[in-house]
Recover the amino acids of this structure.
């Protein structure tokens, strides 16, 4: 099943690349652009974080994970590496520990995971009673789930399900679309 999904994603990415090449890069209508929900939360250290964070960068990779997701935890060192690489291009990476806001124990577990994996990028600890959690996070059924968001706060394309590094072509294609749009 995952192999078929990966093949479909690859085919879609190749089709997109081919069509974008044919249209001189002017028609990106095949890639959806929907607003990321506004939010005001705190990170796992208690610092305020809001959707205004998107305006500080050309693009932001938003990775949703939870304490019980082995794949999520395994990919954190890879995401940390990408975070440092992308910073040079004014691209941010943030995490959302979806269950870290459910109580002190879950928050402590998330903090320990992040420390153990050497994560330095911001990780949001959402309030399960808040709108961001109820209206958006509660609709995520597979982890890890990653979104690419432009500097205006729009989600570019469909969510990326699974390990990000294994789908880096998709991530980079969407980032390229955002950066190309800014050059015009």
């Amino acid at each position: 099943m995952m192999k078929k999904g990966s093949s479909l994603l690859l085919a879609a990415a190749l089709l997109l690349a081919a069509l974008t090449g044919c249209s001189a890069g002017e028609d990106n209508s095949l890639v959806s652009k929907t607003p990321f929900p506004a939010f005001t939360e705190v990170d796992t250290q208690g610092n305020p974080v809001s959707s205004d964070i998107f305006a500080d960068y050309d693009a932001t990779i938003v990775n949703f994970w939870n304490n019980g997701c082995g794949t999520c935890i395994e990919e954190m060192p890879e995401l940390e590496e990408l975070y440092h690489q992308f910073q040079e291009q004014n691209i941010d990476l943030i995490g959302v520990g979806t269950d870290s806001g459910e109580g002190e124990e879950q928050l402590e577990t998330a903090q320990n995971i992040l420390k153990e994996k050497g994560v330095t990028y911001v990780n949001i600890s959402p309030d399960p009673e808040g709108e961001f959690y109820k209206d958006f996070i509660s609709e995520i059924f597979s982890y890890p789930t990653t979104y690419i968001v432009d500097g205006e706060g729009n989600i570019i394309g469909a969510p990326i399900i699974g390990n990000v590094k294994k789908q880096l072509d998709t991530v980079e294609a969407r980032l390229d679309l955002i950066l190309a749009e800014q050059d015009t």
